Structure formats: structure tokens, C-alpha cells
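Figure S4 source data
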Amino acid sequence: MGEGYTVDFKQSVPPKVRELTEEVCSFANASGGFVLIGVNNKGEIVGESIDNDKRSAIQGSIGEISPSLHCQIYSVTVDDKEVWVIEVPAGTNKPYSFGGCIYMREGSNAQKLTNIEEIRELFQNSGKVYFDATPLAHYDLMGHLDRTTMAAFRRDAVISPHVDDEQVLENLQCYDINFNPKQGAVLFFASNPEERFFHAVTRCVRYKGTDKSMIIDDKTFGGTLLNQYEQAMAWLKSGLSIEYAIKGSGPREEKMVEHVGSGISRMRSEMKKANLPEPVFETEGFFTVTFKRKQEVALTADQETIIKVYKENTDIKVEAVCKILGKSKSYVYNNIKYLKAISRL
């Protein structure tokens, strides 16, 4: 057996006892573990003797972990050699800190974390501490209960009227063992959770164009999570009910979008009629439609002259155009054919 996520070897008590405590703290923030003193890094038992002074120093250092953590310290004899064991339980009140820092297991090592965002993200992502499961001390959930939301929940969940609201919350495990409401319960059932968590709101912003430089609508919705969701969806639907039709170079015309799903086929049909490429639809992230314009092709001086001549006289003969350009009939015919192909004639 070697060092790993739940086992750490120490050949002897280090000069700085805090090195042991850092390992203990990291185990408490994970799944618990054992610090074995008297075993070298190769896993070989070398033995170690710990007197009362050293043991007191270790216990005193572990006592500095916050919140308090109870560990067992005892010795075992292996191959006639004494090995000391610090048995660390998986902490039930994570996160634990030592000396103002939080330590986590990173493979077989204790990793110190100091950035609060890194700490929050690590604990939430690793499943050790979730924001919604964290208790909120001294908060009266029943006093802040959103009665409308609770009534809607009871109706949808078909809960008997003989069960009171507080019992419903208990059954949903909205409280910890000390009967403090969990933060998730506050977000779901409290009337104004944003008063407690200023960031617990939904903000919807509408921009003009795509560069996000001009805001034309900005709404912030508070209340329970369900209320925020419903208000945000209503706002989105109200903004998506308008289309803008641009005719030529004139002003855009607003129209109500129809509710049937014919828009995509109509876009394809109109682009085909205009001899333009089909629109490109992208659904990753936002729903995006790309319309490609006609490619402007540089014309020769003779081609510009041909266009001008036919604008002035649509009935002019090819022979007459040949005389104007001083070119052969085949040359003029090929250019006329080309200009028609690119829709310039």
C-alpha cells in the first residue's frame, strides 16, 4: 500500500508540526484518512517513538483546525516497530481551515487554497458542499414564506390539506439538524430571497444589433426562483414576437411573427427566388441565421459600356453594339451572355 487520497506517510514527526495538521485538515475536507508516522515515502516501516510532549504538540496543533475536529491518535506495532496513527474522520461540517487556509487532497498531497472563488467552485463541483444545502442560521423561513408559491407547489404535488406548510418543508429536507433553513429552500420558497442574497435575481437584457454596445431593454426579476423563471420567459416571448422586414434601402417594417413554423421554409424559398445562397442556420448557443448577399463582381470597361447601351436602348442589335465597342460579334455575344448570368443585364 502506498500514499494516496486517504493515506499519508511520515517517516517521523516533522520539525514543524503544522505539516501534519495540514494533512489532517485536507483529509477532513475530503473523505477522511490516516496519517501514518513511522513509515517512509517508499512505504517501508521504519518505526517512530512519540513522547508525551510531541503528542501534546500534535494534539494542540490539530486543535487549531476550525471548526473543531476530533481525531484519534494511537500507536500500533508492526514487525516489532512502533507506528503512530492519526485517524481523521470525513468532516461533517466542511469546509475546515487551518491557519486561515483551507487544505484539500490533491492525489497524495495536501493542497492549500486561498482564493474564495476557487474554494467555492471546488467544494461545489466535488460534491462536498453545495450552495443550496448550506444552512442559513437565524433565518425565519416560515415568516418569509411566499404563500402563493407554496400554494401552487401543494396543488401541483397533490399534498393533503391536513399537512401544514412547515411539515411540508420538513419533509422536503429544507432544514438542517439544527432546524436552520437551507439556502436552497430560501431561494425556492421565501418571498424575497434577493434581500438575503443580492445576486439571487434574473436579469434580462436586450441589445440593439450584435455588438452589445446599446441596451434597448433591461429588466431584473426577483422573488422565488419559480416567479423569476415565469417572468423571464414572459419577457423573452414578448421580445421574440416581433420581426423586422427590410425592403430595399428603406426603413424597416415591424410585423407580428406568425405562430406556425413556416418561417424557415419561406426564408429558403425567398433566397432561392432571388438567386442567392440558402440561409445558414446555427443552433449552438443562440439561434442564428446568416443571409449571404450577392457578390459584387468587378466589370470591365466594355461590360460597363454594354450595360449602359442596353439601358438606353433595350432593342439595340448585337451588330450595333459591335460597332460601338469596335469588337467582334463573338466577343460582344460572350460578354452579354456573362452579364445575364450574373444578373447584371
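Figure S5 source data
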Amino acid sequence: MHEPMQLPVIPFVDLGPFGLDGLLPAHAQRYERLRAEACRDLTPAVVAFGDRVARLWAAGRDLPYRDEITAVARGAGRPGAWLMNLNYEFGCTCGIATAPDGAPVLLRALDWGRRGVGATIVAARREGRAGPWTALTWPGFVGIVQGLAPGRFAAAINQAPRGSGPGAAGAWAGAQWRLWRARGLPPALLLRRVFDLCPDFTAARRMLAETPLAAPAIFTLVGTRPGETAVVERTERRAVVQEDAVAVSNHWLTAGFPGAPRAAARRREPGAAGRDAGQARRRHQRLRLARPADPQRDDAPVGPAGAGDRAPLGARLGRGRPRDRPARPDRDLKTIRRETR
């Protein structure tokens, strides 16, 4: 008989109306562990350089929550806060299921590749302008990558494919150049604004689809009533809303969107892009298979989205059609995390 798994304790912090920078004083050790892991992966010199570049990028932009990032940087006393807050590397997997009462449910597999990210997480509750919400986040990080607003919606970010370019190095360089020129919001700060300001699912979907971004992202959003589900695929200035998607990982569901998986862009081995795209699609399929049965969704026709599904910002939100591949019933959700290593 297997021994029951000992799960780590996730601290819960009620911030009231105050910002997420308030997590740092009580959980400075968790922040320092994250910073130490970043320095080990990238070297302290690269972290310090990246922090200066991130702060310079933010200086000429109308950035929400700037005061909170500034407070974190001041409280930490060492470089890293700006880099942490203006960069997101979370290769997660999301699914949408249906509760017995017909309400949608957001499923989230936290398959992160960065060391220490899972062990340093905290649950933070805040009173936003539109109502309270709770996010699974990290001390020092003022954006949101997954959260729940009771009575309104739940949402999460998935890492999107990196922009195209000549080879992995070209794709990475092209993405950095587009980011440097971009005037939109970092995805995690946009999702934080959605939780703070949006009163319902419809308003959240509109803000996620219509706000210019600094980098591509994939948002999964569910409301409280049957049919309130959406996967919002975003480039910097384009949006596709998939209303029938049941799972998403780190590849586009929409046919024709550019880019390769980010993990491939960080590596130089031949075939890395193909392998990473395959892993993303397999994680997508396994979470899709692991969902509780929902005949209304699973029987819906699926196929490549047409060019007409790609709409510029401000256009009417359309119904997208996700691409799909045959499920693998011999493998399940437990393999998702292993494939991200």
C-alpha cells in the first residue's frame, strides 16, 4: 500500500484592500529562495542586468501597480524584483469541466519547470474594486497567473508560443525586440487588473481580449453560469476567443497563429521546437481526457479555426474552433508534470 503523499502547507494571507507587495515582509524567505534559484539558473550578474533592463522598460510606460513593484524592490534591497514582475515563465496546463449543477469549473495543472516555484507559493486574498479575489502567487510578485473571484469568475494564464524567427535564437531575439517596442501590458498585470476591476465574466472576457499586451499569452476564463467559458488566445494586438475549448497547454489552438513553444526557443538542440510542441499537445490531450465527462462539450465538433476567427482588437468576439488530436486513454493527468522537466 502506498503511503499518502505529504503535501506542503500553502500559507493563506488576507491582505484586505492593500496591494500584493504586502506579502513580502511576512514571507521574505520565500522571496529570497525564488531569487536564489534565479541567480543559480542565470547567475547573479544576469539577474542584476535583467532587473535594470526591466526597470528601464517600465520607465517609459503607463504601468499599473508600478508603486507595488517599486515597494517590493525597495523592501528586497537587491536586484530581481523588476525582472520577476515583468517576466513570466509558467508552462501550465488548464482545462474546463462542468459541475453537477451545470456551472463551469477551471482545472489547473501547475506543471512549472522553475525550481522553487511550487514550494514558495502562497494564497493571497485581496479586496479589489469589483470585489474580493484570491490568487495563488509568490511574495514579491504583484501580478496574477491564476486566481478565483467568488461569484464572478476564475482565470489563469498559460505561457504562449514565442514569436517566429530564423531558428531558435532568431525567435528569441525577435521576441525580445517586439517586447522592447511593445506599449501594452505584461499579461500577469493585465490579469491582476481584470480581477480588481471586472464585475463579471463578460467584462473579464472583454478586457482580456481587447487590452493591448506586451507579449503573447493564453488566458483561460470561466464564470459562474453554464456556458460562461472562454480560452482567450492573445498576441500583442490580436485576439481569438475559443468558446468550445475544453483544455489548453502552451500551443495555439487557433490554426495560423505564429510562434514556437518557448522552451524550444531557449534551447539549441535540433528538433527542440517539434519535441516541445508535441509535449504541449500531449499535456493538452491528457488534461482533456482527465476531465469529468461532459457530453455537451465532448460531442461538440472540433477542427482547425479558419482565418475568419482571427480578429483585430476591438472587433466583435467570435466563436473559435480548437484544433484537436486523438486522445491517449493509456496515459493520464499524472504524466503532465513529468513531461515539463
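The longest strand covers residues 122-128. The chain has a mean pLDDT of 76.
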